[in-house]
Sequence to fold (153 residues):
Amino acid sequence: MIQDYRIKLYALFILLALAGCSTLIGPHSPTAYENATSLKAEVLVTLGKANTPYSDNEAEIEAIKLKAEQAYEYVKGVPKNQLSTKQWEILKDPNGDLLGKFFKRWKERSTLSDTLIEEYKKLASDAFDEIICLEANKKETTECMTHGDTNNG
Fold:
């Protein structure tokens, strides 16, 4: 599960490098950056509640799904923004290994173990960090590192 996500993520960045950024990255957007950073915080707090019944958190989960869809639609509408769009697609995919799968499991099982919650919080955090880093680099080159990337920094 974690390996599949990382392979997809690395494939996106290799694609970015090969394309030379010109056709895959749109202009910097403060709105896209704010959407990603605020939603990351909200998602991590909500994932931490997965040891309580899904039904108790359903309204909050649905609100997060809506915000993720809105953020996706926003970046999708920015010209030359295929890479950002793809990152959001991977993050929110209901059949993928990130938020979609987590929320699906939580609903099916009602509650989740603390171990699984922590694993998904790390995956979600790393995925958001990649989205945030890409957006930040559209404005000014920055050095970004995900929590899982301990060898490079």
Observations:
- The helical segments are 2-19, 30-47, 54-76, 82-92, 99-109, 114-139.
- The chain has one domain: 2-18+32-139.
- Confidence is low (pLDDT under 50) at residues 18-22, 147-153.
- Residues 37 and 132 are 7 Å apart (CA to CA).
